[in-house]
């Protein structure tokens, strides 16, 4: 397991190098540059623009710009945000806690509901309860996240006035107080429920279908023939094999916790990484855009590694050499 993990981590290096080339090339192909966000829009002095571009190194050859960016990136220097006028590392550091809080809250809702409904539907297939859960799942799969978010804001924020429609905390509370944390929970509930409920649909169906499939296999028939209790058959023999597909999702969920729900955060004006990514695209804030893209790429590879390792933890039959 350790050798496999080290080999996979070393294999990430050339992959990340290729990704960095693609990210840098796409940034250069996009109209404008990060300098467009740093200057005053009312300042159209050609000499000033020319001087600043020379100072920032935008007139250097492409390969020189790339190696300068990569060397600074490896050293932890991600540049300065052209919109917020602050280091990118500090800007991302301010947003990550909100995204992690939202991500883990939505994952908690997803896995709790998926396990409850998936196990029930799998143990009692083709019943009224199973059909009801299936209908709700297909409804969840059919509704886009931005539509669900808009309706949630309309009903629960504007009509019922139960949850706030934007932000992550009320500014009137001091950081670290009980009221501050209660306010954070109050603000995260609605976007977390929207994310969690929509993700629950696919998770529930995967678990339900795997339970039904595993309940028909030979090892289950053998366990029943030996007089094993039905509860033990489901909890030990069937359920343990059925959660293996969910392990794949869990690995990639590590990525979603950090990358955040871009659309949902934007609609709820929730100050996380997802909203920051959209802002960086719309304002040509390329230092932030390239840093976030590289971070998402690394987390995707890392999530893949975690999923593969968890295979061996969940199912002893799977051996990673």
Automatic annotation (TrEMBL):
PROSITE patterns: ABC_TM1 (PS50928). The keyword Cell membrane applies. It is found in: Cell membrane. CDD domains: TM_PBP2 (cd06261). Keywords: Cell membrane, Membrane, Transmembrane, Transmembrane helix, Transport. Pfam families: BPD_transp_1, BPD_transp_1_N. Its main location: membrane. It is a multi-pass membrane protein. GO terms for biological process: transmembrane transport. Residues 96-307 form the ABC transmembrane type-1 domain. One of its GO terms (cellular component) is plasma membrane. The chain crosses the membrane at residues 9-27, 100-120, 132-156, 188-207, 243-268, 288-314. Belongs to the binding-protein-dependent transport system permease family. This is ABC transmembrane type-1 domain-containing protein. It comes from Heyndrickxia sporothermodurans.
């Amino acid at each position: 397991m350790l050798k496999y993990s080290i080999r996979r981590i070393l294999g990430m290096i050339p992959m990340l190098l290729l990704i960095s080339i693609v990210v840098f090339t796409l940034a250069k192909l996009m109209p404008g540059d990060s300098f467009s966000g740093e200057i005053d829009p009312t300042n159209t002095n050609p000499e000033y623009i020319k001087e600043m571009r020379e100072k920032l190194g935008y007139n250097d050859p492409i390969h020189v710009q790339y190696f300068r960016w990569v060397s600074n990136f490896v050293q932890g220097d991600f540049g300065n945000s052209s919109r917020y006028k602050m280091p990118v590392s500090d800007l991302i550091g301010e947003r990550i806690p909100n995204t992690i809080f939202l991500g883990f809250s939505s994952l908690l809702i997803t896995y709790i509901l998926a396990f409850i409904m998936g196990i029930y539907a799998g143990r009692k297939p083709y019943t009224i309860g199973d059909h009801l859960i299936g209908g709700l799942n297909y409804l969840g799969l059919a509704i886009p996240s931005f539509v669900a978010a808009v309706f949630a804001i309309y009903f629960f924020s504007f009509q019922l006035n139960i949850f706030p429609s934007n932000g992550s905390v009320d500014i009137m509370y001091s950081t670290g107080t009980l009221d501050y944390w209660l306010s954070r929970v109050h603000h995260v509930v609605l976007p977390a429920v929207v994310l969690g409920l929509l993700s629950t649909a696919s998770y529930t169906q995967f678990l339900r279908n795997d339970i039904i499939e595993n309940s028909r296999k030979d090892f289950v028939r053998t366990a029943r023939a030996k007089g094993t209790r039905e509860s033990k058959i489901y909890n030990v023999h069937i359920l343990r094999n059925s959660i293996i597909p969910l392990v794949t999702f869990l690995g990639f969920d590590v990525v979603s916790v950090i990358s955040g729900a871009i659309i949902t955060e934007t609609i709820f004006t929730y100050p996380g990484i997802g909203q920051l990514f959209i802002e960086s695209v719309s304002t040509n804030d390329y230092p932030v855009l390239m840093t976030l893209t590289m971070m998402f790429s690394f987390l995707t590879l890392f999530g893949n590694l975690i999923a593969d390792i968890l295979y061996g933890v969940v199912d002893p039959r799977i051996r990673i050499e």
